[in-house]
Amino acid sequence: MTFSALAMDHFRAPRCVGSCAGNAPHVATSEAGSPAIGEVVRIQIAVKDGMVQQARMKVFGGVPAIAAASWFCEWVEGRMVDDARAMDTPTIMRELDLPVECARSVALVLDAAQAALARHGGGGKD
Prior knowledge:
alpha+beta, Sufe protein. Chain: A, three-stranded antiparallel beta sheet, 5 helices
């Protein structure tokens, strides 16, 4: 399978790797996937006043999962929680020019991200 230059850039030099600074109440973490399926995505998001201040990721998986998590975390910082919640699999697939076979990996990234965002409830207000 061949991947776009942007997908490979995010895979080779992933952005937003690690954990959010501090362990404040406004930081939520969620995981999706499992080692049994060959992919685990951990997304951590810090929200303040309804805005994503920081997003971090750790991924065990291949090019699509790493690239999608890196792209999403970079994209979401500085955006309102409602905008982040509106992100969908087809948009990430299109942005990274990923083949249709990669949809499951992208969906795992969004599952983890959406679960972390949901932990903030009430539109992401602290």
